[in-house]
Amino acid sequence: MLRTLALALLLGLTASCTTADGDIGDLNAPGDPNANNPGGGGTGAGGGGGSIDPAPTGEDGTTSVGKGTTTPFNPKNDGSTGVKLDPEGNVVLDPTGFAGTTSPIIWVANSTEGTVSKIDTRTMKELARYRTGPGSPDPSRTTVSLNGDVVVVNRGGASATKIAANPLECTGPGGGTSTGATDVRAWGDDKCVLWNTAFDGGSLGRAAAFDAEKGVDGELSTNVWVGLWSKSQMLKLDSKTGKILATVNVAPLKPYGAAIDANHKVWVWGGGVGYIDATTNEFKQIANPPCAYGIAVDPKGRVWTSGSNCVARYTPSASAWESVSVEGFNRGLAVDAKGSVWVASTSMGVHQIDMEKLTVVKSIPLGTSKNFVGMAIDFDGMVWSINQAGSEAYKIDPATYDVTKVLVGKGPYTYSDMTGFQLRNAAAPFGKYLQLFKGCGPTARWMNIDWKATAPIGTSVTVRARTGKDIVSVKAAPWQLVGKIPGDVPPIDLAAKLGEAAKGEYLEVEFRLEAVDAKTTPILSSIDVQSTCPPAIN
Question: What is the dihedral sign for C-alpha 406, 411, 415, 420?
Fold first, then answer.
């Protein structure tokens, strides 16, 4: 039994490709136009600078990737996130940071002009600006999925809109896509806008939060929750299609903000605080919050709220509220990974709160025209605050308190999770390692995948694959589940798993690592893939 269990916890990747006449195909021929990133997309969220080169083939026709091979793992591969290499060269979880592996994007909803700005947090450049709905949608809350995509909730237009972060995954009906702040396409004509779900008129969509749930096909953030303020309802939407899956009555609350924890709870603020058990859709109200306007959850599962002259912390295990007096009308707040909570103070700037001591560390005045609304943390640990009055987004270095800013659209009004860091920081640890392979030609058929990995108790690995005729098509192809650890024993018959999709010059595989806490990690050591190349039929 122990031998069987050990086999079930092993994983390793090699690509071999033999042509019909016995020759070995070149997996990365010099001058191959697909060997480089076609759009500079970077990572799965688009623009992070990740590698997109396929792994090279050895003289014996195999590609060995990982520990002990000539091609080591690269945790900055396009789409990889939340992983790093241990000293031996294995892929392991990186629960404390995603810098360098997650696209550096912040999404700022511009309420007055009905758009959302997509900003590179490192270059401070606005990469794109999208309309969020027809007419005058009045966008406000944003929520970013574990994949980096954003859902924007429109108050005036009573709808929610999903926008793809990665340009390679822009599969909407539009004829093109925005390339910057001044290039805003007409509603319905931007292919990065994936769906729009309308709600009843006057329902005032406000609260929004992606979950951290995993679908049966391995998809991340399978649902997104949207609050309808005037109806005292939270809606659960399918994040892939926008279809409404469930309606939860949260009266007497009127949903104004929402946040997710690691225990499948959707925390809601709106005239009070409560949570929805996402597994049962049951709602429970929490008594006597000292103050509430913004809401966030820290890695320990504690719920933070802010309001007039107050910041509060709720510990679910003790059913206890604690608070500290913080000057000003406080609004949005965000939790970082280094022990601080950052709070937007409407007419001043930003307060820094010690997460454990519940004391004010520093107050940082910002701007001249002031109406600070939202807070966010990016994946480099920088702190962001949105100034509605100045149509500005401020970035603060928490080590030096140096401040820079970037202009956004008119009337930015958002104070929810604009980067996706709050979801990553509060959810159970996970990471993805992606590896691209190039077969021996257009007729390549992928036959088998083998791997080496260990998955200690409390951890797991999910393996998915997709193929395409070129890099653009493989990035747009749907993922298919290949195996799970523990459970499946490699090698796995790819031809049987993928069916007709086993054909394609390019193969991309994804290893998703998960753990119940930051103390333990699965370990990926190597990967092997085998393919054949039947002769082309003229």
Answer: negative
Number of domains in the chain: 2
> Residue 314 falls within a domain, yes or no?
yes
Whether cis (ω within 30° of 0) applies to the bond prior to 491 is yes
100 inside domain: no
Query: Same structural domain for residues 154 and 239?
Result: yes
Residue 117: how many other CB atoms lie within 10 Å:
27
Helices and strands, counts by H and E, the chain = 4, 36
How far does Cα 95 stand from its chain's mean position?
14
Per residue in 86-120, pLDDT tens? 999 999 998 665 544 446 899 999 999 999 999 99
Tens digit of each residue's pLDDT (9 = 90 or more) over 261-312: 999 999 999 999 999 999 999 999 999 999 989 999 999 999 999 999 999 9
Q: What's the whole-model pTM score? A: 0.80
How many whole angstroms separate alpha carbon 311 and alpha carbon 492?
52
Contacts with 276 (C-beta within 8 Å, 6 or more apart), sequence order: 225, 234, 248, 250, 265, 266, 268, 282, 283
CB 288 within 8 Å of CB 303: no
Q: How far apart are CA 490 and CA 133, in angstroms?
A: 47
> Looking up tokens 């100045």, which residue turns up?
390
Residue 230 DSSP one-character state: G
Handedness of CA 264, 270, 273, 274 (dihedral sign): negative
Query: Do 443 and 409 fall into the same domain?
Result: no
Examine the domain organization and report whether 59 and 163 are in the same domain: no
The candidate with the shortest Cα–Cα distance to 180, out of 138, 118, 234, 271, is 118
Residue 402 is part of which domain span? Answer: 105-426
Last-in-domain residue among 426, 460, 480: 426
* Closest C-alpha to 434, from 409, 397, 464: 464
Q: Bin 391: left if φ > 0, else alpha if -120 < ψ < 50, else beta.
A: left
What are the strands of the beta sheet with 349-354, ordered from one edge?
294-297, 303-315, 320-335, 340-345, 349-354, 359-365
In a domain? residue 538: no
